[in-house]
């Protein structure tokens, strides 16, 4: 794999330094994802800007978690699965919701499951959601603004998922308690701990 540095505020290109400082203030540590993205200040700036915009969208914080985890699960992004699981814990998202997505199984809550299914379908079909899928999401209680906000979330996570895949972003120790690996179930949990190899 190509070696990409994990920048800090001393080594990053000048344009990225204030963005890393801002991330450190917001999270209490500088996420390794930001350190990888800092090689391209434009990428880091775009990701942070989209993150703020998505947070202010018509989707609730709970709905946003479902979208972000579902996209990351589809792309098998270990870093983002851990990061968003930890973030979900902080805002008191029920673990049965995050566990369902992490294990690639239906969410018990019907509305959240409709959102998970639509998001998964959207990514799987490269954005070609049919009328049936659109109507199913609307019938679950979402409006058209929220449907389009899902697309924003997909774009946001695609930026980070692809960055992590290409640069091999290491998981921050602060996120280790929510480590995840492809496979789901017991094998996935063991793989996340490095005790077995995970399927790719």
Give an overview in words:
- The chain is an all-alpha fold.
- It has 2 domains: 1-56, Up-down Bundle (Single alpha-helices involved in coiled-coils or other helix-helix interfaces); 59-192, AhpD-like (Up-down Bundle), CATH 1.20.1290.10.
- The chain is built from 10 helices and no strands.
- It has helices spanning 17-27, 32-37, 41-55, 61-74, 78-90, 95-102, 110-124, 131-139, 144-167, 185-192.
- α7 (110-124) packs antiparallel against α8 (131-139).
- The protein is globular.
- Mean pLDDT is 92; it is low at 185-191 and 195-200.
The number of domains: 2
CATH-derived topology of the largest domain? AhpD-like
3D shape: globular
| Proportion of helical residues | 55-70%
Short recap of the structure:
Helix content is 62%, strand content 0%. The protein is mostly helical and 200 residues long.
SSE layout and pairings?
Layout: H1 17-27, H2 32-37, H3 41-55, H4 61-74, H5 78-90, H6 95-102, H7 110-124, H8 131-139, H9 144-167, H10 185-192
Helix pairs in contact: 3-9, 4-5, 4-6, 4-7, 4-9, 7-8
Tags for this entry?
single chain, 200 residues, mainly alpha, Single alpha-helices involved in coiled-coils or other helix-helix interfaces, AhpD-like, 2 domains, 10 helices, disordered C terminus
